[in-house]
Amino acid sequence: MKQVGPERIAFIGIGNMGWPMAANLVRRGYDVTVADMDGARVARFVAEFGCGGEADGAAAARGRGVVIAILPTSKQVATVAAAVKPVLAPGALFIDMTSGQPGATRAIAADLATAGIAMIDCPVSGGVPRAVSGELAIMAGGETARLDEAEPILKAMGGSIHRCGGIGAGQAMKALNNLVSAGGFLIGIEALLMGQKFGLDPGTMVDVLNAGSGMTNSSQKKFKQFVLSRRFDSGFGLDLMVKDLSIALEVGRDAGVPAPLSALCRELWAAAAASLGPGEDHTAVAKFSEHMAGTALGGGNSA
Question: Most-buried pick from 123, 217, 224, 249 (CB within 10 A)?
Fold first, then answer.
């Protein structure tokens, strides 16, 4: 029987991001068992990659040295952690790659520690394309020794690892990163709408932004690809962006830092989510700005 160790991984949550991340681990020789609430999705992954699959996290984690979870919220992570805790041996490692709440993560880590299980938080940035290519930016928090242990696994999924501090620090950094990204997206869309009303071509404007000081990740990788194309299918949900912005504001409140612009940014994204309804991609927030401006970029429908 193969020895239980860090090369044997239970990967819980094979959604838009988790699927390519787990696939990269399999390709790099790790012994991976996947689990997901969507049983059909698990079956497709097992059929494609020839690894193990289970109906629930506890079954996937049994006999494993490492559990990786990437789920929508910390509440779901807490449920999974409670389920896998009885089946993991002391010394096991729980890697939470969810964009979660730092305070909740610290509480989960404290509970796992009572069974000798260590936890680190390692949320990612880069979206589905960079998850597929293995070029994610990973923001890590936790004890140095456990981060050292996890580094080969993390490198198999992402191109760069940024150690941010103790447990929860990675998630705090991820939320603040998304805050900056979300603000840049909104101001960029407003600039494109103003320019189009003036008579400028939106595509040309994006090219100029990318050649000048107005360049952002959104101008490089989102405006033409998902807004001007009217695809709105980047793979990251509008509801998840609102969640991350709410976490960023919690970080600010806990630190006692006034953040009026950040609060306005979060409220605009939340208003867009309420107006557009569930299931929208985060790039569809442009439709909310278009509706207020009474025009759509690139000749699309602003209704």
Answer: 123
